């Protein structure tokens, strides 16, 4: 099924965002594993896998619409040197993702592409859940301090 070039461009832009997120989260996850912050490592690793599934769904949609998935493009990554930096960088990235998915939903609806709209809405809900989790972690750090927070993330 041939699609509108604007939708294909948006799908590829979202794909670049997801592939960038996968890489950023994998690096953060492995850094946490290296620091023996096993609980944090596991949660971030699961988020990386979820972002990978988003990329997979976007690729499938692009192919369905007879487009070419661009998997070689990544956006700049922002790897944090410490856990607080990582969470803050991830928060900024997720806020950007929510904004771009909201725009993509509106674009797809205006162009009558309800299949792409539904995909964008589905991923948008996941990205909002990521923000909620990150904000909860930042609140915990604010309330108990970074050292107490990190102690809870071990083992």
UniProtKB/TrEMBL annotation:
<feature type="binding site">
    <location>
        <position position="54"/>
    </location>
    <ligand>
        <name>Fe cation 1</name>
    </ligand>
</feature>
<dbReference type="GO" id="GO:0020037">
    <property type="term" value="F:heme binding"/>
</dbReference>
<keyword id="KW-0409">Iron storage</keyword>
<dbReference type="GO" id="GO:0006879">
    <property type="term" value="P:intracellular iron ion homeostasis"/>
</dbReference>
<dbReference type="GO" id="GO:0008199">
    <property type="term" value="F:ferric iron binding"/>
</dbReference>
<feature type="binding site">
    <location>
        <position position="51"/>
    </location>
    <ligand>
        <name>Fe cation 2</name>
    </ligand>
</feature>
<dbReference type="GO" id="GO:0006826">
    <property type="term" value="P:iron ion transport"/>
</dbReference>
<comment type="similarity">
    <text>Belongs to the bacterioferritin family.</text>
</comment>
<dbReference type="InterPro" id="IPR002024">
    <property type="entry name" value="Bacterioferritin"/>
</dbReference>
<dbReference type="InterPro" id="IPR008331">
    <property type="entry name" value="Ferritin_DPS_dom"/>
</dbReference>
<keyword id="KW-0479">Metal-binding</keyword>
<dbReference type="GO" id="GO:0005829">
    <property type="term" value="C:cytosol"/>
</dbReference>
<keyword id="KW-0349">Heme</keyword>
<dbReference type="InterPro" id="IPR012347">
    <property type="entry name" value="Ferritin-like"/>
</dbReference>
<feature type="binding site">
    <location>
        <position position="50"/>
    </location>
    <ligand>
        <name>Fe cation 3</name>
    </ligand>
</feature>
<feature type="binding site">
    <location>
        <position position="18"/>
    </location>
    <ligand>
        <name>Fe cation 1</name>
    </ligand>
</feature>
<dbReference type="InterPro" id="IPR009040">
    <property type="entry name" value="Ferritin-like_diiron"/>
</dbReference>
<protein>
    <recommendedName>
        <fullName>Bacterioferritin</fullName>
        <ecNumber>1.16.3.1</ecNumber>
    </recommendedName>
</protein>
<feature type="domain" description="Ferritin-like diiron">
    <location>
        <begin position="1"/>
        <end position="145"/>
    </location>
</feature>
<keyword id="KW-0408">Iron</keyword>
<feature type="binding site">
    <location>
        <position position="127"/>
    </location>
    <ligand>
        <name>Fe cation 1</name>
    </ligand>
</feature>
<feature type="binding site">
    <location>
        <position position="51"/>
    </location>
    <ligand>
        <name>Fe cation 1</name>
    </ligand>
</feature>
<feature type="binding site">
    <location>
        <position position="94"/>
    </location>
    <ligand>
        <name>Fe cation 2</name>
    </ligand>
</feature>
<dbReference type="Pfam" id="PF00210">
    <property type="entry name" value="Ferritin"/>
</dbReference>
<comment type="function">
    <text>Iron-storage protein, whose ferroxidase center binds Fe(2+), oxidizes it using dioxygen to Fe(3+), and participates in the subsequent Fe(3+) oxide mineral core formation within the central cavity of the BFR protein shell.</text>
</comment>
<feature type="binding site">
    <location>
        <position position="127"/>
    </location>
    <ligand>
        <name>Fe cation 2</name>
    </ligand>
</feature>
<feature type="binding site" description="axial binding residue">
    <location>
        <position position="52"/>
    </location>
    <ligand>
        <name>heme b</name>
    </ligand>
</feature>
<feature type="binding site">
    <location>
        <position position="130"/>
    </location>
    <ligand>
        <name>Fe cation 2</name>
    </ligand>
</feature>
<dbReference type="InterPro" id="IPR009078">
    <property type="entry name" value="Ferritin-like_SF"/>
</dbReference>
<dbReference type="GO" id="GO:0004322">
    <property type="term" value="F:ferroxidase activity"/>
</dbReference>
